[in-house]
Write a structure and sequence with these properties.
This protein is an alpha/beta fold. The protein contains eight helices and eleven strands. A hairpin with a 6-residue loop joins strand 6 and strand 7. The N and C termini lie far apart (47 Å).
Length: 242
């Protein structure tokens, strides 16, 4: 049986860059669609949700930040930002909006394809466990406090608060799984980069802080006073089951 190509949407208003990306990604085996604006991108997603997205930030009336936020309302597909904006504020803002990775222009196309492959590996792990034979218990209760227990089912790729599934992105899920792999252990930011992102991210450990903040808003009863995902000042983060 022929393997079905993954659908990838490139959202880029610069014609030469968009065309170069499409050619390179088609060579990698992706079924590539193109969008030249934010509105065009959302129209594509509404008709046929892609498996992955590559999004520029500067798109005109509806920028890439808005596109990512809208897509994240209903979908957890991997999203990579490709942008000429290299300021830390822009990187953090894109990650806060829901992007999984960020690449600055100018870039080598092979860097984009490598990061897409890493995201796909994480997606596979998120949908069926870590990929290791000893994946731990079928489920872990992270928080027993009312109103309902918070349960991680790593092999199923889900987190539930009672009967309600918690809508984590792939990166947030992998980050929670790593912390939950050894409760009480302090993980440095660099260790989390190497384990969760695999290829790392600019050597900039602040990406971990951004994703930890996003994770807390979804799993903590009070994200402003976290008790589950705890900061250990100067060292990193640990998970303290409640």
């Amino acid at each position: 049986m022929a393997r079905v190509a993954l659908r990838l949407l490139v959202v880029e208003d610069d014609d030469p860059i968009r065309t170069a990306l499409r050619w390179a990604l088609e060579d990698e085996g992706y079924d590539v669609a193109e969008a030249v604006s934010g509105e065009d991108a959302l129209a594509h997603v509404a008709v046929a949700t892609p498996d992955l997205m590559v999004v520029d930030l500067m798109l005109g009336s509806m920028d890439g930040f808005a596109v990512i936020r809208e897509v994240r309302r209903d979908h957890d597909l991997p999203i990579i930002v490709v942008s000429a904006r290299a300021d830390t504020h822009d990187i953090v803002a894109a990650l806060e909006a829901g992007a999984d990775d960020y690449v600055t222009k100018p870039f080598e196309v092979k860097e984009i394809t490598a990061r897409l492959r890493a995201l796909r590996r994480r997606a596979g792990a998120g949908s069926g466990g870590t990929g290791t034979p000893d994946a731990g218990p079928a489920e872990v209760v992270l928080d027993r406090h009312p109103p309902a227990p918070l349960v991680l089912r790593e092999m199923r790729g889900t987190v539930h608060r009672g009967e309600q599934q918690v809508p984590l992105t792939l990166t947030e899920f992998r980050l929670l799984c790593e912390l939950a792999s050894t409760p009480g252990r302090v993980f440095s930011r660099q260790a989390l980069l190497e384990r969760v992102w695999e290829h790392g991210f600019f050597g900039d450990e602040r990406i971990v802080d951004v994703h930890i903040r996003r994770l807390r808003t979804k799993v903590e009863l009070d994200a402003g006073a976290p008790r589950l995902v705890v900061t250990v000042r100067g060292l990193g983060y640990r998970l303290d089951p409640q």
